[in-house]
Write a structure and sequence with these properties.
Blueprint: E1 11-13, E2 15-17, E3 21-28, H1 45-68, H2 72-84, H3 88-99, H4 104-122, H5 124-128, H6 130-145, E4 159-163, H7 168-172, E5 179-184, H8 192-199, E6 204-206, E7 218-222, E8 227-230, H9 234-252, E9 268-272, H10 278-283, E10 288-293, H11 307-319, E11 325-329, H12 357-362, H13 364-379, E12 384-389, H14 395-407, E13 413-417, H15 420-424, H16 426-431, E14 435-438, H17 440-448, H18 466-482, E15 486-488, H19 496-504, E16 509-512, H20 517-524, H21 529-540, H22 545-557
Parallel strand pairs: 3-4, 4-5, 5-6, 9-10, 9-16, 10-11, 11-12, 12-13, 13-14, 14-15, 15-16
Antiparallel strand pairs: 1-8, 2-6, 3-7, 7-8
Helix pairs in contact: 1-2, 1-3, 1-4, 1-6, 3-4, 4-6, 11-13, 19-20, 19-21, 21-22
The protein binds phosphoenolpyruvate and magnesium ion.
Phosphoenolpyruvate (PEP) binds at residues 291, 293, 332, 418, 439-442, 489-490.
């Protein structure tokens, strides 16, 4: 079906996840069941409650049997959904609604809507979990009304799955043989769809303005550029196929330590949030861990995790990297990652509030317990543990943290540079610690004053911006002058060309989602240190994020 330019849109834009590209026909996700009627039940509260409970139990059973068939995050997501169905607060609310005369369908709808509102109001990470709840409610309502569960279509051939918002239960169990790519209209870069797509190396674009896509039409889904091209020309298809071949060759290339064309080593490390991911990271060639996000282990905990529980998790992580560097970040609570046991009081601007090191200083026993658990875990393995603090803004905070880490007997203490103030005083901050690791996600958020979880300002949330690159350069220079390592552990390190720029600005190691390692490894090998510096200078001299990328592309092309 040809699309006439100027009459209908020929392209849709969204937030790409990873760098994959796919070509195929669109198939829309089956719609959720319609909103249940508010008419009073004719069956009576007791029977309605029984129906609701039976349907909830059946859906929980089905989710668990799907969980048993998969592994890792997929299984955890499905299990978490089953648990939502057993939450006593939800059951209490359902009982209340049927008690007031609602049908089971309506009571389930109301109970989950209330729960969802609560999560949405909390913002950030929790708000993004709201989609999980909507999906659970839809499944129970479909079960009650005998309708087919909302879910993945089966057009009988491979397809590009388009959905309003993909439920985690669906993302987790997608048949990767049939689903060429996923496009969702909702969702941000940290939504479940994005997290799971990244983990499965699935071509995906979330938050896409793509409601106009028509069932069956052929599209190119270009995640690297966040573009969905409709009615592609033969040339566009050929370019996409060539790109697919390039990416496949990259993935198949032998795994070797990261280095530049002149042999300069650039260790390539993994970002992890769970020791369970270590094996895959090692398989993909991670030379160690550049960021272990400890707070991910305890996001659901009401009370501080015990030393023993922590010790076990850290030991599992460290044991997977004998003789390797493993950088563990102490708990980074606040904003989009609230931890109930580290404050969590309401704040007007949580991203600017009591988070990271600020929260830890207010609950110092929690920090001490964590450091003790890390020290014990380190003494039982032979990984090279380094510990770092999140959200350092002042030299005093850096010195305080290094003092407490060294006093625990842990030899290497570093800080994350995520706040522009720390980058601007990098020489003094670095003088107080053993290393720095730049968190480009937050550094971009604070430099550009653009909330990292708000889709509407996503355009400003671009680490290619020369203002962000200038701060990276300041930290790189300070590190070189003091002879201290400067790593990068934000998402920026996963963009192959930007990784070259970051090395050119002075980064001495790069840490990223393991699925990004192959692309970055291949790209680094194409340039010498001198060339990386000149590509970085071209980006630094630009006046915006887009022009910085184009300038780097042009400078890099000159060395090809
Ligand atoms: C960052 O801010 O870049 C970072 C790596 O930390 P997080 O994404 O966990 O805030
Ligand atoms: Mg951060």
């Amino acid at each position: 079906m040809p699309i006439e330019p100027g009459v209908v849109e020929v392209e849709f834009i969204g937030i790409g996840v990873g760098r994959g590209i796919a070509i195929g026909p669109v198939a829309w996700m089956s719609p959720p069941p319609p909103e249940p009627s508010t008419a009073a039940s004719g069956r009576g509260p007791e029977l309605e409650l029984e129906r609701a409970e039976a349907a909830a139990a059946e859906v929980a059973r089905e989710l668990r049997s799907r969980a048993a068939a998969v592994e890792g995050t997929a299984a955890e997501v499905l299990e978490a959904q089953a648990l939502m169905l057993e939450d006593p607060a939800v059951h209490g609310s359902i009982a209340e609604h049927v008690g007031r005369g609602a049908t089971a369908e309506r009571a389930v709808f109301e109970a989950f809507a209330g729960y969802r509102e609560l999560l949405t109001g909390m913002g950030g990470y929790l708000a993004e979990r709201a989609a999980d709840l909507a999906d659970v409610a839809h499944r129970v309502i479909a079960e009650l009304s005998g309708a087919a569960a909302p879910g993945i279509p089966d057009p009988g051939h491979p397809f590009v799955l388009v959905a309003h918002d993909l439920a985690p239960a669906d993302t987790a169990t997608l048949d990767l043989e049939r689903v060429l790519a996923v496009v969702t209209l909702e969702g941000g870069p940290t939504s479940h769809t994005a997290i799971l797509a990244r983990e499965k190396s699935l071509v995906a674009i979330v938050g896409a303005d793509a409601a106009g896509l028509v069932e069956g039409e052929t599209v190119i889904v270009d995640a690297e550029h966040g573009r969905i091209v409709r009615a592609p020309t033969a040339d566009e298809v050929a370019a996409a196929v060539a790109r697919q071949e390039e990416l496949a060759a990259e993935a198949a290339a032998p795994i070797a330590p990261g280095r530049l064309a002149d042999g300069t080593p650039v260790p390539l490390l993994a970002n992890l949030g769970d020791p369970a991911g270590a094996e895959e990271a090692v398989r993909l060639g991670a030379e160690g861990v550049g960021l272990f996000r400890t707070e991910f282990l305890f996001l659901g905990s009401e009370s501080a995790p015990s030393g023993a529980v922590q010790q076990e998790a850290y030991e599992r992580l460290l044991a997977a990297f004998p003789e390797r560097k493993v950088v563990v970040r102490v708990l980074d609570a606040g904003a989009d990652k609230p931890l109930a046991f580290l404050g969590g009081q309401h704040e007007e601007n949580p991203a600017l509030g009591v988070r990271g090191i600020r929260a830890l200083r207010r609950t110092e026993p929690v920090l001490r317990e964590q450091l003790d658990a890390l020290a014990v875990a380190a003494s039982r393995t032979n990984a090279r543990l380094e510990v770092m603090a999140p959200m350092i803004a002042t030299v005093e905070e850096a010195a305080w943290f290094a003092g407490i880490v060294h006093a625990t007997g842990l030899p290497v203490a570093g800080v994350m540079v995520e706040v522009p103030a720390a980058a601007l005083l990098a020489d003094r901050v670095l003088a107080a610690v053993d290393f720095a690791s730049i968190g480009t996600n937050d550094l971009t958020q604070y430099t550009m004053a653009a909330d990292r979880v708000l889709g509407e300002v996503a355009e400003l949330q671009d680490p290619w911006h020369p203002a962000v690159l200038g701060l990276v350069a300041a930290v790189g220079e300070a590190g070189a002058a003091l002879g201290k390592p400067v790593g990068i552990c934000g998402e920026a390190a996963a963009d192959p060309l930007l990784a070259v720029v970051l090395v050119g600005l002075g980064a001495t190691s790069l840490s990223m989602s393991p699925s990004a390692l192959a692309g970055v490894r291949a790209r680094l090998l194409r340039y010498s240190a001198v060339q990386a510096r000149s590509i970085a200078e071209a980006a630094l001299a630009a006046d915006g994020a887009g022009s910085a990328r184009s300038a780097a592309e042009a400078a890099a092309a000159a060395f090809a």
